[in-house]
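Dear colleagues,

For the upcoming journal club I promised to circulate an example of a predicted protein-ligand complex. I picked one with MGD because it came up in last month's discussion. The inputs are reproduced below in full, followed by the predicted structure.
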Amino acid sequence: MKTVTRSTCCYCGVGCGVLIEAENGRITDVQGDPEHPANFGRLCSKGLALASTAQSLTGRALRPEMRVHRAEQRRPVEWSDALDHVAARFVDVIERHGPDAVAFYVSGQLLTEDYYVFNKLAKGLIGTNNIDTNSRLCMSSAVAAYKMALGADGPPTCYDDLEHAQTVLFAGSNMAWAHPVLFRRLEEAKAKNPAIRWIVVDPRRTDTASMADLHLQIQPGTDVALFNGMLHHLIWEGLIDRDYIERHTEGFDALKRLVREFTPRAAAELCGIAEHDLMQAAEWFGASDAALSLYCMGLNQSSHGTDKNLALINLHLATQQIGKRGAGPFSLTGQPNAMGGREVGGMATMLAAHRDIGNAAHRDEVAKLWGLADAARLSDRPGLPAVEMFESMRSGKIKAVWIACTNPAHSMPDITKVREALRKAEFVVVQEAFMQTDTVPFADVVLPAATWGEKSGTVTNSERRISRVRAAIEPAGDAKPDWWIANEIAQRLEKRIANAGSTLFGYASTQAIFDEHRTLTRGRDLDITGISYALLDEAGPQQWPYRADAKEGETRRYTDGVFATGDGKARFHATPYLGVADAVNARYPFRLTTGRLRDQWHGMSRTGRVGKLFSHAPEPALTMQRADATRRGLNEGDLVRIASRRGSLVLPLQLSADVPSGTVYAPMHWNGQFLASGGINETTHGAVDPHSKQPELKHAAVRIERAELPWRVLAARRGDTLAMHAAVQPLLVECAYASVSFEEGDLIVLRAAHAEAPQGWLERIYAALDLPKGDDTLEYRDARRQTDKRVIWRDNVIDGFVLAGDIANGDTLMEQLRDAQPWLGPRFAAFSVQRQHAAPRDRVVCSCKQVKESRINEAIAHGATVPELKAALGCGTVCGSCVPELKRMCETAAVAS
Ligand SMILES: Nc1nc2c(c(=O)[nH]1)N[C@H]1C(S)=C(S)[C@@H](COP(=O)(O)OP(=O)(O)OC[C@H]3O[C@@H](n4cnc5c(=O)[nH]c(N)nc54)[C@H](O)[C@@H]3O)O[C@H]1N2
Ligand SMILES: Nc1nc2c(c(=O)[nH]1)N[C@H]1C(S)=C(S)[C@@H](COP(=O)(O)OP(=O)(O)OC[C@H]3O[C@@H](n4cnc5c(=O)[nH]c(N)nc54)[C@H](O)[C@@H]3O)O[C@H]1N2
Ligand code: SF4
Ligand SMILES: [Mo]
């Protein structure tokens, strides 16, 4: 029977509504929900691919697994054994070393209900504040700044503002790729009203930047200087609102004194941009009827990320670009439920419903609401934020850790230390939906989690809007929802930890959890006592605050100029400009920055399962400006070693005019499942912001040199890509460079390079890729030249190949494999080099319609415009994620001609 279930996309903080179609326990299709106020039916390329990422059970965590001793292999066990074991080990550590010897590391991708149970378990039952989340790597600078400047967490703005903003300032946000559906709304608003100005602050010329009226291509880490300089100019030009400053704010004088030295010239010089561009940006911002800033990781992921946020909020307060339609500082939430996590207080530095750990009255309130027998059970010791948590594990203080819905061995900065920490811990629990992640190998216990499509609850999106997530199918195998797992173990702990109070756990449903959660928000800034499952079912997603006596939620906050501070006034902060933590010098001359790809999601455990989502960026790469490369004698495609003071990795070089001289860029996604290394976080720096404790993931000083790896491998095979991936992945680390990607048509592609052939490696690759010797296999070997080649046919069509040593005819074989046309002529010709026929690397620009770069360029060469491209080729007509790139390709061609 076919069913359609209304739910929410599991990826970014836009929080698009989806309709999940399922049949016989399988998700068959996912469409945008036309009624959802975040997307009105639209989805981006990742959302549209949800059905294909969800379909296969290969590689899913299906059964609990555990080992009792480190030396053992984990083996499958019953749920009751795994739950009893985790509870017993946690009790043991707590009894021996106290509650702060255990830690929870959870995720902004958990649902609010999951999060709530984890937070109550750590803080209310165990009595430790050692519960932190990947939101520490993501939103914590934005949170710190909102609280310091406006008195409370959460954006004052809403999505409707996107349509009303007259000046849009994107700061450290590549919204065209990271929040695509909201970007579509901005594009439409600008198309309707060309007077709208876009300013983009980003060291790279991203798709977002290429559409801007003004791109401020600043040096990484210099945003505070820029915003201070803009404020200086606003004051000078009389574009500030003195009356508003007087009535609704505090602290302007100190700030004014500070920005005196940030003349446009001085600031522009620090940023590496033109002075008149800085002044232009300030004027467009200050003189606008409605200036909206949209900001994300380029501001937050910095060792002075809170200052970057505050300096931007200063601009809004000084010009009264806040609390009115189309204006305000709008922090874009990264993960689907980073907001929900903050609401339940699921971090080491906060308590439920935006309360503070350090505030005794707040602790008493929470203790009472939770029914704790003893209010003192709520610890007043702040918990350890992510980076410190893993450091404390590494130094042996934290003995047991429970990781849920995040992959720290990939996503934390300086991962050598994280791996050491996970090895050092006595007991590691990993609650995961997929087995192929870099953290799973460290687990003593794997708890299989139900994932998107299989679980229910709520999430809160970037505009404070709570949406229902609903299960369309049963969990895979024995997997269970995250809240259920936490609740089961909590009940076991409750029996063993003395004097916890009345029954704290024993939830029967997510609704029971939500009902308890909302009670805790009564009277708080995020009061949601008016929101219930029943209301969400009847009236759809709702924004907070939404009090019990209200008729609806608040769309915009601070419209009356009264802020959430004690005296109702917002606070200016004097933000000095400070340099990055990891200084460049002659030994480490490049500034490395990192970020996202359009079609991948973080550690790729989901998006990395489908070929289609690789087509836009098929290979990992380090991007460098051509002139920088030429000076070093490096060429496109060369393998380079990127080394920082902490670690190194090898990546292919990609030349691009999008990065400024001296800056290089690598996407954050590629990790040990797809590479011979753990990815770019081998090199990043664990320095954190003093207020938010967010690490500086956007900057590291690095050295780049050619990696001399003459022995090359190119292999590709059609078949069960997920099964082959699992077999190939353990072999990757044996080469200095290796990467795996998928292509449409069930293809897995392996690229590798090493000084010489590792012993016995190729034989294992043949086995992993199912290329046995046989009648359908052609083989060529030249031991002296370390050359080894194999091609396999099925019904006269090439079905796979491995080229090792000499990969000169790789492109030709790849094309044959992709096209799946019968092989003409003698088979041995497959090994002869046919360079002249080899097609150049052709990227897929439009992933929905699979339209390649070459076809688009050909049409552009014949004069096609974006609408004509859409009409003729279909590209850009489904999700629209590639439209910025299509525009850019047309513009580049126009400039060139
Ligand atoms: N496709 C896709 N979308 C996603 C995600 C994903 O994995 N894939 N993840 C989601 C999550 S969790 C998050 S947090 C968001 C992140 O969304 P974004 O923050 O928009 O994405 P990033 O690419 O990490 O970084 C944005 C930009 O910051 C720039 N930048 C680097 N250093 C600086 C600097 O010093 N100053 C300024 N002004 N800019 C700088 C980078 O060049 C980059 O273009 O995306 C969400 N959406
Ligand atoms: N260099 C660099 N590093 C970065 C960043 C950067 O820009 N540059 N960005 C940082 C940011 S902003 C973020 S948010 C982090 C993200 O980093 P992570 O949190 O590590 O990223 P994910 O890969 O999304 O991890 C989520 C995990 O949960 C699993 N999962 C999926 N569904 C479920 C479920 O329902 N339950 C459970 N228990 N598990 C599930 C997935 O398989 C996946 O392994 O990365 C950070 N790291
Ligand atoms: S913009 Fe894309 S990834 Fe983000 S919620 Fe919408 S469909 Fe999902
Ligand atoms: Mo994030």
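Two points we might discuss: The radius of gyration is 27 Å. The first helix runs from residue 45 to 48.

See you all on Thursday,
B. R.
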